[in-house]
């Protein structure tokens, strides 16, 4: 059974800005900022058309590794300080989850644990697997890998839940004169981790999954 043709085999290019599918017609060429003359201009919106995202592998690896390195202090350093008349307590992500669980907020503890621990680790593993398999030109489970990439993109926007919880608690507790909540450096590292992993998923070109060989033009 012959493989279905790809857009690159049919000489078609999809515009990432407006979604128009264009044919690579000779003469419809313009120079880009780097002086490369093989980039087409979209006839609808005028943006540069490229068959693949430029340096997709290198940029995605760099962002993913940077996000993983920042994820370590995000879990080690405290993200929130709660102060009352009798106690001052600094919480990391894990200790915050444990405290929520012990205080009877098991549902909230599960949500925070999923958004702050499970989701980032799954994103690291999933993007790493997509990068390695695409660079090796693997034809294993391509439809499933493409769906996995769409899932990683979708859940990435919910990874900031921990930051939102700290911001919400800080705003609410400020109305009380007997207690106080302050964000600590850990929440900054966690926010940077989320942003970098989101940029990594945006930098990865899912069309590379279907190439069958390394093609990072």
From TrEMBL:
Cytoplasm listed as a keyword: no
Domain of life: Bacteria
Location(s) in or outside the cell: Cell inner membrane
Keywords: Cell inner membrane, Cell membrane, Membrane, Transmembrane, Transmembrane helix
Transmembrane portions of the chain: 60-80, 108-133, 154-177, 183-204
InterPro entries assigned: PqiA-like (IPR007498), PqiA-PqiB_transport (IPR051800)
Protein name listed in UniProt: Paraquat-inducible membrane protein A
Keyword Repeat among record annotations: no
Cellular component, GO annotation: plasma membrane
